[in-house]
Amino acid sequence: MQIVVLTKPVPDPAAAAERLGLDGRLDRAASPAVVNGNDEYALEAALKIVDALGGEVTLLTMAASGAADTMRKALAMGATRGILVSDEALAGSCIRSTTQVLAAALGGLTFDLVLAGVDTSDGVAGVVPAGIAALLRIPYLGNAARIEPDPASGRVRVRRITPTGYDLLDAPMPALVVCTQVLGEPRYPSLKGIMGARSKEIATRSLADLGLDPSTVGGAVASTAVLDSRRPPARGATRVVRGTPDEGAAEIVALLEARRII
Amino acid sequence: MGAIWVIAETNADGSLARSAAEAATLARSLAAASGREARGLVVSVDPGRAGGELAAYLGRVVTVTEPGAADHAWAVIAAERAAGLLGDDPSAIVLLSASPDGRDLAGTLSALTPLGVLANATAVTWDGRVAVEMSTFGGKLTTTSGFTGDGGIITLRPNAVTAEPAAARGVVEAAAAGAAPALPRVTIAERVAEASAALPIEEARVIVSGGRGVGGPEGFDLVGELAALLGGAVGASRAAVDAGWIPYARQIGQTGKIVKPQLYLALGISGAIQHKVGMQTAETIIAVNRDPDAPIAAFADLLVVGDLFEVVPAVVRALQERPG
Question: Which chain B residue's Cα is nearest to A139?
């Protein structure tokens, strides 16, 4: 099995230092970068598949050139190699451009599956993978709670979480699957993995390498722009009630009435 | 200028999803402000019922009958049919639900059209062009964004708008399905319903959620009883889902659903940041927790300090004894 996992460096949510620069773009210098949490779940799912069936896992990242450092942690988990698409023209890319660039990069690779996380913790949109599958004309299987590829038949079965349970999806490979956290916790890199990651290949690709014209993708032709940003208004003070259960219940019912919920 | 389109999701029984009624209400107000036309689109096996319901909100509704949607993933089919109707018009505005299907539809439709995407809108206004308010970085920042052109795709968070029917009913017209599909259709080999699944939590106006303090799957019976009395849905923190007490579809927070109900009642949930990002925009937050110093004390409207197994039955009694 050849599996490509889409990974994105994001500002560390735990650092809580995210801010936008004057240009409305993320100020990446203000916040340390980590591998997007949901992407680690996708990587774990990929590693489990190659552990069972054999094969290789390639990371595909579109980011600034410094992202190679962040990719090392994902390589330490067990990925085989990384590909970093990086180009100054890509700064400020919108969802459309990101989709086009990642699809172009995948177009030059051979794979059975592309795995992606449900969304990224910075933008939280979660729409890029479906767009990539459409541009590549490959089956798209979203919201996966279980992934069962069958190399013999060349097909993959996926449990897709629905509001009422799940759908069992079936499609030929190559296919793109979006992974939920139900697939299982990401492993911690072993010491051996960390040491080994230092010598693993991270190939860098520019827009020219992908055959893309900088006048058609990237920040210069972004389809969206941030107009304004602000801190959300703080909530009012918390009323804290200590007393008997009946007193607490009376407070709850009184608030529900005051807010016209009941 | 292009129309403002609402692509509706439908419920399992063929009725209109509430998210579509909300998006249609928004589309109508944007249309009034911009001088554009608002239109609805329903793509499904049997779009008649939802199309009729959507016409209560919009002047013109287009329905496309797609027998293939019975046993194939819906979003890609709907995206192709929508792209066929929209064509290459870069000025069309499309409103979708910020649901799993809505996300898939947005990504696919963007790839098939010249339109960009702004996701998870909490408010959309018209000020010469669309201004889309979103919450980013786990609620730490509120941004207002726009499209650099005249059109684009917006996914709308549930409960961002209150659905209100129009003064007059609109017309429903059937459109042909159009060209043969170019994108691969994914077969649904089986649809499986799980017992605990009920009202989708994203659409619920009231959510009663349980966390570690609920103590086990039996504890969720109490959570469910209060939710039922309030006409709401049951949610959960990651701790309760990881413990296997309740399915993942109920999980709220960074790794689950992001919800914006009128009332969020948190039972035995500490309110760590991973949970907070999923529910902090609820209009009213009430917590019951034994620990007065739990993080939720910092952002709830009301914290009742006590044992939820004593407080919740008292709330249930008080609600049942209320007159009228």
Answer: B184
**Contacts by A192-201 with C-beta closer than 8 Å and gap 24+?**
A193/A76, A193/A77, A193/A78, A194/A76, A196/A75, A196/A76, A197/A72, A197/A73, A197/A75, A197/A76, A198/A72, A200/A72, A200/A75, A200/A79, A200/A80, A200/A81, A200/A82, A201/A81, A201/A82
Contact criterion met (CB < 8 Å) for B118 and A121: no
Neighboring chain A residues of B117 at a CB cutoff of 8 Å: 94-96, 125, 127, 223-224
Pairing of strands B187-193, B206-210: unpaired
CATH architecture of B201-321: 3-Layer(aba) Sandwich (3.40)
User: For the whole prediction, is pTM greater than 0.90?
Assistant: no
Contacts of B77 in chain A (CB under 8 A): none
Q: Is B103 on the interface with A (CB under 8 A)?
A: yes
Asked if B51 reaches chain A (Cβ–Cβ under 8 Å), the answer is no
CATH 3.40.50.620 correct for B4-175: yes
Beta bridge partners of A176: A114, A140
Contacts of A113 in chain B (CB under 8 A): none
The ipTM (two decimal places) reads 0.92
User: A51-62 in b/e burial notation, b at 16+ Cβ within 10 A?
Assistant: eeeebebbbbbb
Chain A residues in contact with B119 by the CB 8 A cut-off are 95, 123-127
Tens of pLDDT, residue by residue, chain B (324 residues): 999 999 999 998 999 999 999 999 999 999 999 999 999 999 999 999 999 999 999 999 999 999 999 999 999 999 999 999 999 999 999 999 998 999 999 999 999 999 999 999 999 999 899 999 998 877 778 999 999 999 999 999 888 899 999 999 999 999 987 788 899 999 999 999 875 545 678 878 899 999 999 999 999 999 999 998 998 899 999 999 989 999 888 999 887 888 889 999 999 999 998 899 889 989 999 999 999 999 999 999 999 999 999 999 999 999 998 875
Helix (H, G, I), strand (E, B) or coil at A82: strand
| Nearest chain A alpha carbon to B194 | A165
In this complex, the residue of B117, B183, B314 whose CB is nearest that of residue A249 is B314
B222 touches chain A (CB under 8 A): no
Q: Determine phi and psi for A42, rounding to 5 degrees.
A: -65, -40
CA angle A87, A88, A93 (to 5 degrees): 85
Q: Which fold has domain A2-221?
A: Rossmann fold (3.40.50)
Whether residues A37 and B255 touch (CB distance < 8 A) is answered with: yes
Which residues in chain B are closer than 8 Å to A229, comparing Cβ atoms? 136, 141-144
Instruction: Give the C-alpha separation, B94 to B27, whole Å.
Output: 9
Q: How many helices (H) and strands (E) does chain B have?
A: 8, 15
Domain regions of chain B by residue span: 4-175, 201-321
Chain A nearest CA to B171, separation (Å):
30
